[in-house]
Amino acid sequence: MAKLTIRDARSADARAIAELHVAAWRAAYRGLMPDEYLAALSIEQRYDRWSNALSRPGPAKLAVVQFGEEIAGFCSFGPTRDEVPSDIAEIYSLNVHPDRWRLGAGRLLCEHAVREAAAREHAEMTLWVLKGNEGARRFYERLGYAHDGAEKTNTQTIGTPLYDVRYRKAIA
Q1: Which of 1, 10, 55, 93 is the most buried (most CB within 10 A)?
Q2: pLDDT digit string (tens) for 6-22?
């Protein structure tokens, strides 16, 4: 069986990340987002987004997990977008290709993000998860995250309300 390895994402990874991103959303959000929205997700738009993100320096980090030579997942993280000033970090996005679910890739990516954030002297890690995404919520709870009571309504992603809940974990 191929080994899972973590590394920083490179510009050359943008296409694979975009393809994985679309596949992960279509599988993870089936029944939680409209089928029409998921079917219309564009690899090209995601490619442009990730290509731009990888070409710009900034506080956010993007790591990939490889299964052999194949990119099996990615995690973007950095300083929280919620509380300023803050010693809190945030996982902005965590996606694993559905063919690689339950192999430990998501756990490795989360652990990597926590190590990186702790090395930058962040005391806590937060993340937002779709309220109805019970599988993701259980995953984060198994990793020691807990819902901290914060909730928000997101109308920008698909044009209709999505309800997110925030999870939090002490890392220092």
Answers
A1: 93
A2: 999 999 999 999 999 99
